[in-house]
Amino acid sequence: MADFEENFSLAEATYTISNLSLGVSRMALKKVGVVSINPKELLEEGIRRELALELPSLLNCNDKPGPLEDVLNHLSDTLQSFRRAFIYMCEHVDINGYDMWREEIDSIVHRMANELKEKKLPTVVSFDLHIVIGVMSIFPSS
C-alpha cells in the first residue's frame, strides 16, 4: 500500500508541475511598467534558486559517521536520486535540467573548495576535502 501512496503523491506532484508549465508556456512576454518579464526565464531562475538552496543540504555529510567510502556511497546514492527527479521535473517544464544541474554542482564544489583553501588547512587533510573530491568524481564538470 505504501507504494501506491508514494506513486500517487508523485503523480500528483507531476500533474501540478505540468499544469504550472502549461500555464507558463501560454503566457507571453509581459510588460510591468517599463520592465519586460519573460515568464519562462522567471520560472527557470526560480528553479535554479531552489536547486541552489537544496543542494548544500544534500552535500552535508557531517552528521553521518562511518568510513569515508560508506559516506561517499550514501552521498552518491542521494545525489543520483535527487538528480534523476530534478531532471525529470525539468523535462515537464521544458527546461534543460542537465546543464542547470551541472552548473549548480560546479558552483557549489568550487565554493566549497575556495572556503577550504581560505582556511589554510594543515598538512592533515580534513574530512570536508575528501567530500569535495568525492563529489567532483561523482559529477565531473565536463
From TrEMBL:
InterPro entries, sorted: WASH_strumpellin
GO process terms (BP): actin filament polymerization; endosome fission; endosome organization; regulation of actin nucleation
Pfam families for the chain: Strumpellin
GO cellular component, one term: endosome
Domain of life: Eukaryota
PANTHER family in alphabetical order: WASH COMPLEX SUBUNIT 5
The family this protein is said to belong to: Belongs to the strumpellin family.
Entry protein name: Uncharacterized protein
